[in-house]
Input
Amino acid sequence: MSKAIEVKNLCFSYEKDVQTIKNISFSIEKGEYVTLIGHNGSGKSTLSKLLCYLLEAESGEIYVDGVLVNEENSSKIRKIIGIVFQNPDNQFIGSTVENDIAFGLENRKIPRDEMKNIVVEYASKVGMEKYLNKAPDELSGGQKQRVAIAGILALNSQIVIFDEATSILDPEGVEDIKRLILETKKEHPEMTFISITHDIEEAYMSDRVIILNKGEIYKDGSPE
Output
C-alpha cells in the first residue's frame, strides 16, 4: 500500500524550550482508519493542525499523499486533506445548512445541479436533510457538528481528520457518526480516516491506534 501520510522527525513548540511535539516519526497507509488517543495536552490536536498546515512545523517533514507540507504547497494539501474540528462554530460558514455544505463544492466549481444532489446526499447521511434551510443560530451544537462533517465528506477528500469531532454530540449522535465513518470507509476504501478521540469503543473499531504521551508516541499498533 502507498502512504497517505508520512511524518519524519517532527518537532513543534508553542513556547520556547517547551516542546509540544517531540521528534516523532510515523506513517499512515492509504485506506487506514487510525485513532489517536492520549491524555489532554499530549499533542493530539497540535499534530492534526500540523498535518493540515494550520500550524507550521518547527523542524522535521510531513508528506501528505507524497506532497511536502509547506506554505508553497498549502493549497494542494487542503484539496487532499479535510479536518472536522471539536467546535463546529469555528467552521460554520454558510447562512444556511445547505449553503454551508455547498461552500467547499462551490470553491471547487462543481456544477450547480450536481452540487445540489451532493448536498442532499451528505445531509441525509448525517440526518440533516430536513434542516437544509435552517440558519446556524437555529441549530444545536450537535446539529452544527453533523453539518460540518457532511461538508467535509461531500468534498470527497482523500484524507479526513476528526479532531474530537463527536465530543459535543449526545450518545445517539456519537453512534451515528461512528457508523457513518464505517459506511464511508466501506464505500470508499481508498479514503484515509484519522480520528482524535477519547472514545475507547471508537479506538477499538479502528484499524490502528497511536497513543501519544507528552508529545511522543507511546504505543502504535492494533487496537487489541
About this structure: The longest strand covers residues 3-15.
